[in-house]
Write a structure and sequence with these properties.
101 residues, single chain, mainly alpha, V-type ATP synthase subunit H
Amino acid sequence: MELIKQIKQAEAQAQELIERAKADAAQAADESRKKRAAAQAEADAERRKAIAAAVAKAREEGQREADALKAEADERRQALRRETEARMDAAADKVVNYLRG
């Protein structure tokens, strides 16, 4: 009788250990999921931050390039205007001289 009692007690203890191990495994899995989710959220935040920084840098570089191109276009326009004015003055002088002559 005592042996049966000890066996049942051992079975109860084994069942309790199994239940505790299941609970510990479930808790460990839950903690692991939470850590993965937190790591994923942090990685997503870093990715968004890197994208925002890249966009800002590209915008700055684009604006600088646009400003440089605009300045170059203004310089070329002024040079062309000076060149055409000089030619127009020379052509006007030729016409006036021809008409006088």
